[in-house]
Amino acid sequence: MYDNDSKTGTDYEYNHGLDEYMQQSYKMPYQPKSLGESLAILREYKDTLPHDKYVSIESTVRGQAIEYQYCDREDIDRLVRLAKGEITYEEGKKEIHESIEKMLEHNRQNN
Known about the structure:
Blueprint: H1 6-25, H2 35-43, H3 51-66, H4 73-84, H5 89-110
Helix pairs in contact: 2-3, 3-4
């Protein structure tokens, strides 16, 4: 227990600052912390997609959020490119695999 309640606020600020530092130091993409943030990213693509494809991607983003997994810009960009036919399903899977491998390799080097 703390003698001074202000330490609780300090711990929060420290942890929040640490989170920002970790994202910068590992060059991680910003990870949305809510469905609203993911949908805000998707709205940037609204004028570039037919309505039915936009609604389909929105449904996917909402479905992920049920499990508290919020789509980031990279995920949404991949879904948009897939909907536009710019990449195939297999190419999308390959991109995801490469991204995971790169992150794991970076973690191995820094640990």
